[in-house]
Amino acid sequence: MSAMPDNAGPRRGQLPWLLVSALLVALDQWSKHLVESQLAPYEVRRLLPVLDVVRARNPGVAFSLFDGGAGWQKWVFSGLAIAVSVVLVGWLARLPRAAKVQGAALALILAGAVGNMLDRLRLGSVVDFILAHWHDHYFWAFNVADAAISVGAVLLVIDALSARGNPGPQEG
Predict the structure, then answer these.
(1) Fewer Cβ in 10 A, N or C end of the chain?
(2) Which pTM value belongs to this model?
(3) Active-site hit among 28, 119, 128, 159
């Protein structure tokens, strides 16, 4: 039985995307720090007719779900973020090199999970500050991490629906 050469089969690994994740986590944390240092709690500043900056905190998850809990959210959602992050890094490591869209999507989701987890562990809640609205109709406040998760999820769906979608992680 002869050993297979190192270059046999498709090349795997999308770990370079971790640099994108790290940069997005840094941007997320910096933007939250900036907002917290420049605005009073719940202060609103208009940027555009449809976009405000507000200093808000969310102890829950997306769309303020579970924000009325007794503090358990910090530990449950931080633990969940750690587990999801481990799975995403493993997925990136096994992803074929040609799966660029999936790599980008997973990197964005990873960055969002880590960014919000850092807030939960450090502050007990997530800092939200982007407030989109149309006249008197307001969307929930969100942050860079939330946007990264949302864009990453959309990219995963687009990739899955595309005719040339890339395969998910495979055992090698």
Answers:
(1) N
(2) 0.81
(3) 128
